[in-house]
Amino acid sequence: MAHETVTGDAFENLLREKRQFAPSPEFAAAANVHEGIYAEANADPEAFWAAQARERLTWSKDFSQTLDWSDPPFAKWFVGGEVNAAYNALDRHVENGLGDRVAIHFEGEPGDTETITYADLTERVKRAANAFESLGVAKGDRVAVYLPMIPEAVVTMLACARIGAIHSVVFGGFSSEALRSRIDDAEAKLVVTADGTYRRGKPSPLKPAVDEALAEDGHTVQHVVVVRRNGQDVAWTEGRDLDWSEVMGAASAEHTAVGHDAEHPLFILYTSGTTGKPKGILHTTGGYLTQTAFTHSAVFDLKPETDVYWCTADIGWVTGHSYVAYAPLVNGATQVMYEGTPDSPHQGRWWEIVQKYKVSVLYTAPTAIRTMMKWGSDIPAKYDLSSIRVLGSVGEPINPEAWMWYREVIGGNGGRREERAPIVDTWWQTETGAIMIAPLPGITATKPGSAQVPLPGIAVDVVDEAGQPVPDGHGGFLVIRKPWPAMLRTIWGDPERFKDTYWSRFEGMYFAGDGAKKDDDGDIWLLGRVDDVMNVSGHRLSTTEIESALVSHPWVAEAAVVGAADETTGQAVVAFVILRGEASIPEGEDPAAVLRAHVGHEIGPIAKPRHILVVPELPKTRSGKIMRRLLKDVAEGRDPGDATTLADPTVMHKIAQDLRK
Ligand code: WT7
Questions:
Q1: Three-state DSSP string of 292-324
Q2: What distance in angstroms lies between residue 564's CA and the mean position of ligand 1's atoms?
Q3: pLDDT on residue 276
Q4: What does pTM read for this prediction?
C-alpha cells in the first residue's frame, strides 16, 4: 500500500499528542490577522497575493499580471512590476519619518555593541552600492558573501539587491573547497569577506579560506573586499584585495535605487541535495519579498512599533536571508543580531540578550531548544524573559517535550499561565523561500509538535505514492499543489535538475521530500525527510518518532536514530543518545536497557532500538542538522570517512572512541 512508506502504527504515538493551547482572547483581539483571512485567501489565492504585494511593498511600477504559469514549473509572479528590495527595506522607512528607529541592535561575540538606525543602515547600503558599482559590479553579476554575523553582512546583501547584483551567501563555517565550488558555479565577480570573527572569546579566521579558495587560477573573481572585524593579520593580495572601510570611505553616500523587474534574480543560495553537488537555489525579487514580508507579519504577529525581534539564524542559511536580511527590514522592524554562540562566555548568553534588549519575538531551531534543555532550566530562570510574547521554531520537527519546555521555561512569563507566549512551528525550506505551514498565533489553537496549517493562499497537501490525497488520520508525502510567490524559480544553471528534483515525482505538484501526516482534525504533522524512514521487519518506522520517544524520557537530552542494515530484519534501529547533565541515574541501572524499555512502552516492541549508544555529542552540520549518514556508517561498522562538514569535526572521533571502550 502506497502511503505506508511514511506511515504505520508507529506514527500513532506522535499523533496521540492531544494537548492544545488556544490563544488568549487578548492576543487574538490584537493580532495582525484574523480568522477570515483563510477563506479570503483560499477563495482566490492570486487576488490575495496581489493584494499582499501591493500592501506590503512599494512598487516603482505596478504589475499587470499576478501569475504567469503558462510554462510550468517555471513561474513568473507580478509580471511587469518593478520593485527595489533595498528601497523597500530602507529608504522608504526613512522617507516615512522612521529614520531614527533602530533597525539592528548588534551584539558582538566579545560584548561590543552597535545600534544601527534605519537612517544609518540606509546610508551604509547606499555607500556599499556605490562602492560595488565602482568595482565593476553591474546588474545581474554575482557576488559571493563569506561573512560572519555582523551588520556588514546585511549591508552587503542589501547593496547587491539595490544594484540588481545577485548575492550568493556562503556560510562562514564552510570550507575553502565548498566556497570555491560555489564561487565557480555562480561565476562570482566579487567576494565580500572579513578577516574573521570571534568564537568563544578568541579570534577565528575567515579570510584564509578565501585565499585558499582563490589560490588556484581559473576563477572569475576580480576583487575581494575585506571587513576588519577581529583585527588579526591577514595575507593580502595587492590589486585584488581591498579594505572595506577604505572602499566605503571613498564611496558617495548618495545613491538612487531604481526598480528591478519583479522576476529579476535576488539571490542564489546553495543547499545540499540527497546526492551530487549542492544545488544553487534561485530566488527572484517581487514574489519573494511579498511572501517573506507577509509571513513575517502574520506568523510572528510582528508589530514594528513595539516589538523587538530576534531570529538566531546565521545569514548563511535561508532563515537568515528571509527572516533577518529581508522581511524584518521590509516590515520596518527592530531586530537583534548576535555574532556568537549560545554558550559563550556562559550558557545564559541568549537569555541575557533577551533580557537586555527586551526581545519580544524569538525565532530559533529545535536543536537549540534541546541544547538549552540539556543545560538545565535553572539557567534561563536567572533572567527576566517576560518581554517574550511569540516564540518561533524552524528547521526540523520539534518534539512535544522540547515544545513544552520552550513554552513553559522560555515563554512562561514568570509562570502566569494565561500569558504564555504562543509557539509557532514553521515548516518551510530553502526552496520555498518563505514559511509555508505554521499556526497563526492569534487564530490557531497550537499543538505541541505540529506545524498544523498551510498559510492562507498556500496549497499544501499530503498524498500517497500515487499522488492521491490521503484522508485525515493518514500519512504520506508532503506536496505543494499550486505555485507560491516565494518559490524557487530554478536551480542556477540547471533547469533540468530543477524539474527532476521537485516536479517529477508527482504530476503537476512540487514534492518537498518530507513525509507528513494529517491528524483527525486535518492538521499537518511533519515526520522528517522521507529518506530517513526505516524499514524494520517490514514495518515502517520514523527516525523522528523514535527520537521523540527517547527524548520524552527525563534522562535524555538529545537522540538520533538511524536504520542500520541488518541481514534478518532489513534494517535495525540504532539510537545515539546524549544524557542530560542533570539526570540522576540510580546506581546499577543500565541507561540503555531502561531507554529500550521506554521506547517499547512509548511506541511498541518493534520500535525498540537494537542498540542504544550513549555518546557525549552528536555529529551536526553547522546549521544544526544531525548527520545521520555518519551515524549510520558507525552503526554499520564502517569508517564514517569525511566529516569535514561537521560543526565540530572531532565529534565522530569521540563517538568512535567511546564505542571501542
Ligand atoms: C527541511 C528544509 C526552513 C529553514 C531552515 C531549513 C525540515 C524545516 C521544519 C519544521 C519539520 C522542518 C524539512 C524541510 N524542516 N522546518 N518546522 N518541522 N521539519 O531549511 O535546510 O532547506 O531544510 O527542513 O525536512 O524539508 P532547509
A1: HHHHHHHHCCCCCCCCEEEECCCCCCHHHHHHH
A2: 24
A3: 40
A4: 0.84
